[in-house]
């Protein structure tokens, strides 16, 4: 397997905090811009495991395995389209810049760099605000808010649809900012938002007046009434203070959606609100009301304000119960190990996509999507979860045979990860099956 770290450790960590200089992040051509997000994967997991270790030591329940795996699964889902096509935000920006630019600022000017920093951050603020206050955009963005936990893994819970609604907010910059500078700030703006998804940093002192911090973003993820539609910032909290959407953290936050999904199924998490909105649109009478379903807030109904009534939001207080099906320790270890192996496979897929055929990439993506579905059903204690898992293990071995047959690699040259997969599947399946049926038998006796 290729080296996990594509950049020096201190460089990768600095990128997560936007601690870079204009000189090191200004490029003369788009193709010279590093894939910041792809290169940051290992650093995400270093910090996640560090926070997990702290949570385990404190025994404070900040992490739950099913919720964390669902969050990371959503992150994996969100990257699937990029294996085939370029990001729509980049393609649209470059097209507008090429055909409609008024003038082009110099790419190697610090003034250009700082102007783009502010422009991208304000563009993100308005996109983010619309994503909460316009229902068809919320259908994508709600994925990120669906976790009832708030930790670094939650930051990875992203929507596969969101990029198709966000790109338009950055197009005004294309009239004068070079694309390569725009790409840098788009990536770094998103990376900065990773580390603020933590409960362990209480306050940053005077920086709270300028930067988006863990405290401000905890409010944004809350479903307490005082948290609703607040703190849309990406990097700078000044936009919320300027446009009247700022709220300080003043009581313990209850995290998640106002109406929890109560599932770890990644497909439901991704698409449930889009399906609900479409059905609501079909059932609503009158063109004006149909447009209200799409373009007003998710809480809007006929006769109510554009974003709905705050009184309709359940008035929750911490501590608050969470959706949390219970599993045995052996069961959790099994799921964690298998999910980790799948995650490694996806990292390899992203790394080697240039040398793989489109057909093989599609097969691997279908396998990944089905596997993530299996994990969701396992953690939901779905009735047929064990049969989904049997199928997944069998398909993984079949996929290995197909890759050998089409000479992606020779049987004698199988990557070590594939050998490990085969041993793992064959040895652990029997354990999983036995544990599952033992628990099912005990539940039947208890009933």
Primary descriptors:
mainly alpha; 16 helices; 0% strand
Q: Would you write up a description of this structure?
A:
By secondary structure, this protein is mainly alpha-helical. Helix content is 57%, strand content 0%. It is built from 16 helices and no strands. Helix 5 (110-133) crosses helix 6 (135-145). The protein is globular. The model has no long low-confidence stretch (mean pLDDT 90).
Question: Topology, please?
Answer:
Blueprint: H1 9-16, H2 36-58, H3 65-79, H4 88-100, H5 110-133, H6 135-145, H7 163-166, H8 179-195, H9 214-220, H10 238-243, H11 266-283, H12 287-295, H13 329-352, H14 358-379, H15 385-405, H16 416-446
Residues in helices, as a percent range:
55-70%
The global form is: globular
**What is the radius of gyration?**
23 Å
- Beta percentage is under 5%
Biggest sheet details:
none
C-alpha termini separation: 49 Å
Number of strands: 0
- Indicate the low-confidence ranges by residue numbers: none
Please report the number of helical segments. Answer: 16
Summing up helix and strand content along with how strands pair, one would put the structural category as: mainly alpha
Q: Can you give the mean pLDDT? A: 90
The H/E string reads HHHHHHHHHHHHHHHH
């Amino acid at each position: 397997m290729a080296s996990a770290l594509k950049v020096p450790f201190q460089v990768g960590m600095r990128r997560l905090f936007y601690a870079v200089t204009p000189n090191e992040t200004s490029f003369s051509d788009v193709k010279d811009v590093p894939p910041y997000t792809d290169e940051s994967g290992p650093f995400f997991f270093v910090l996640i495991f560090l926070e997990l270790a702290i949570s385990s030591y404190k025994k404070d329940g900040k992490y739950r395995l099913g919720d964390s795996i669902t969050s990371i699964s959503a992150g994996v889902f969100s990257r699937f389209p990029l294996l085939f096509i370029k990001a729509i935000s980049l393609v649209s920006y470059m097209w507008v810049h090429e055909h409609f630019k008024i003038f082009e600022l110099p790419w190697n000017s610090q003034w250009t760099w700082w102007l783009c920093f502010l422009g991208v951050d304000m563009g993100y603020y308005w996109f983010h605000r619309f994503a909460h206050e316009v229902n068809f955009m919320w259908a994508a963005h709600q994925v990120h808010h669906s976790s009832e936990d708030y930790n670094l893994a939650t930051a990875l819970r992203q929507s596969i649809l969101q990029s198709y609604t966000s790109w338009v907010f950055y197009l005004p910059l294309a009239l004068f900012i070079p694309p390569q500078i725009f790409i840098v700030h788009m990536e770094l703006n998103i990376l900065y938002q990773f580390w603020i998804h933590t409960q362990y940093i209480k306050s940053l002192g005077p920086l709270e007046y300028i930067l988006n911090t863990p405290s401000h973003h905890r409010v944004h993820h809350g479903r307490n009434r005082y948290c609703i539609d607040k703190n849309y910032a990406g990097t700078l909290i000044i936009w919320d203070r300027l446009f009247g959407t700022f709220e300080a953290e003043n009581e313990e936050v209850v995290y998640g959606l106002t109406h929890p999904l109560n599932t770890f199924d990644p497909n439901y998490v991704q698409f449930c609100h889009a399906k609900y909105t479409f059905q609501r649109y079909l059932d609503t009478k009158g063109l004006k009301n149909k447009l209200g379903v799409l373009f007003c807030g998710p809480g809007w109904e006929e006769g109510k304000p554009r974003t709905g009534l705050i009184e309709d939001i359940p008035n929750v207080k911490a501590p608050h119960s969470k959706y949390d099906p219970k599993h045995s320790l052996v069961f959790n270890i099994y799921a964690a190990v298998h999910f980790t192996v799948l995650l490694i496979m996806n990292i390899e897929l992203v790394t080697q996509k240039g040398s793989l055929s489109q057909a093989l990439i599609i097969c691997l993506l279908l396998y990944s999507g089905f596997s993530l579905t299996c994990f969701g059903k396992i953690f939901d204690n779905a009735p047929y979860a064990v049969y989904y898992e049997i199928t997944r293990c069998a398909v993984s071995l079949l996929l290995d045979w197909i890759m050998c047959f089409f000479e992606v690699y020779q049987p004698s040259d199988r990557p070590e990860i594939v050998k490990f997969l085969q041993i793992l599947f064959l040895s652990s399946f029997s354990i999983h099956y036995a544990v599952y049926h033992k628990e099912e038998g005990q539940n039947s006796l208890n009933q």
